[in-house]
Amino acid sequence: ASIGNFFRRSLRRAGRREGKDGASAAENTPLQVPQGKLGERSSVFYSAGQFFFEYLVVVSLKKMPDGQYEPKITYQFPKRENLLKGQKEEEERLLQAIPLFCFPDGNKWAPITEFTSETFSFVLTNVDGSRKIGYCRRLLPSGRGVRLPEVFCIISCLGCFGLFSKILDEVEKRRQISMAVIYPFMQGLRESPFPAPGKTVTIKSFIPESGTELIELTRPVDAHLEHVEFQALLQRLSPHLILHIFASAMLERRLIFLAEELSVLSQCIHAVAALLYPFTWAHTYIPVVPECLLDTVCCPTPFMVGIQMRHLERVLEQPMEEALIVDLCEGKIIRAVGDEEEILPGKLQNEMLVSLNRHNNNNNVHTSEQVNTLVSETFVHFFVRLVGHYASHIKWGRSGSGNFQERAFCKAITSKSCRRFVKKFVKTNMFSLFIEEAEKSRIPQEGNG
Q1: Beta-carbon contacts of residue 150 (< 8 Å; ≥ 6 apart)
Q2: Predicted confidence band at 190 (pLDDT cuts at 50, 70, 90)?
Q3: β-pairing, 324-327 with 118-125?
Q4: What is the reported pTM?
Q5: Is the confidence at residue 26, as pLDDT, over 50?
């Protein structure tokens, strides 16, 4: 109950804060303002050289007196010593929250003999707005007879799903040998600097009977796509529905995604948030909502959440305001506002549809990196066409501070349908935050002194 109250308080705080500091559990990355033209990818989300991770924890299911199971942390690396009071309180909150998100599907478990490992992630937002990502691998420990699954969770401030999935592959491989083999690998990782985009770091690791292994971890070249798997979205939803979801997200509506697998929810919601680049979802963002927090859907402020399909009836019974509810299992929309088809300017929407259908049907595209790049370009191009002229409507004062001229910016758009949409879009939090950053980040022009 206490941890549930903590999260509800943080959601309410987020809702009150939304006007200024981006509020709530928004994921992905800090807000980026492309240099020069909208859509240029010159910025790096996270500075290279910081720690890969803060903690590795193992969350196991412990039997309670009532016969049900409750998730508890049974292993933590590293153990922190000599923390200041504030740091200790933050750590305790974090360690209290982690089990809830590692087993969001409640406590109705029973020992089993077979289980397919699954990978998913969650996001925790501190009171100060900083974010931590939990990368999880749920697996069945090696052995015979019935056993309970456990979750290995890596807590990091760094958003790079593919890279952490590879680290979890190594953790799982070692888990099948012995817990003792995991520690030196994670220690080696902790001592290695996080690589810059496109660069590789090599970790030396010794495994009994196999000898010393060299594990190469490469970061994608395009930093803003490293937490994304657009293929997961395209496999489950038609391009037409993806555009309806994108349009709703752009107007900062309430979005609920349903699937049974935690990995599907996690991948698809990260992908939807990434479609908004270079803008950032600035509201409540929970890729997998724990069962005890299902009343999040009653929240009056915008949210983007993932809920397991088994809870559909409970969700529909909640007294929620207008929301878009998406079934990722069947690839359909269960509940809509009704105007999704008309939100985006018609001509641009059709161009995006053609582009997405081309990528969807193109059998020559094999790698997820290629799909990511092509899909991202479709949406970045949309933003360039629509609001790419923003920089020329920032008036710069002598002190160096900028002032965005909203009326002139909207007036400069010749297409009526585009102007009508942009007038709504400029009122969103994500656009306001983007412009706030742009007003601070003037680049001195050559020859201007």
Answers
A1: 58, 59, 60, 61, 74, 138, 139, 140, 141
A2: confident
A3: unpaired
A4: 0.80
A5: no
Could you tell me which of 402, 338, 374, 50 has the C-alpha nearest to residue 222?
374
The reply to whether omega before 220 is within 30° of 0 (cis) is no
- 145 — pLDDT class (breaks 50, 70, 90): confident
Give dist(CA 80, CA 291) in Å, integer: 30
Instruction: Please say which residue of 219, 249, 283 terminates a domain.
Output: 219
312 and 163 together in one domain: no
Report, as an integer, the average pLDDT of 288-309.
88
Q: Are 212 and 205 in contact (CB under 8 A)?
A: yes
Supply 265's token pair: 């929810």
> Would you say residue 347 lies in a domain?
yes
Cα distances (Å, whole numbers) of residue 208 to 75, 88, 170, 213, 215: 22, 37, 14, 10, 16
424 and 407, same structural domain?
Answer: yes
CA 105 to CA 410: how far, in whole Å? 46
Q: Total structural domains in the chain? A: 2
Identify the helix (H) or strand (E) that includes residue 40.
none
Same-domain pairing of 190 and 246: no
User: Could you tell me if 139 and 110 lie in one domain?
Assistant: yes
Q: How far is CA 361 from CA 199, 246, 272, 389, in A?
A: 31, 20, 20, 32
Domain-located, residue 10:
no
| Distance, CA of 294 to CA of 277 (rounded, Å) | 28
Q: Which domain holds residue 203?
A: 55-219
Mark out the alpha helices in 103-194 (DSSP H runs).
161-175, 182-190
- Indicate the residue type of 54: E
- In terms of C-beta density within 10 A (0-12 exposed, 13-18 middle, 19 or more buried), how is residue 445 classed? exposed
Question: Do the Cβ atoms of 315 and 334 come closer than 8 Å?
Answer: no
What radius of gyration do the chain's Cα atoms show?
A: 23
233 lies in the same domain as 167: no
Q: What is the distance between the alpha carbons of residues 299 and 295, in angstroms, rounded to a whole number?
A: 8
What six digits make up the tokens of 55?
Answer: 């903690």
The CB density around residue 363, as the number of other CB atoms within 10 Å, is 5
The pLDDT of residue 253 is above 80: yes
Question: How far apart are alpha carbons 9 and 217 in whole angstroms?
Answer: 38
| Residue 162 and residue 86 in one domain | yes
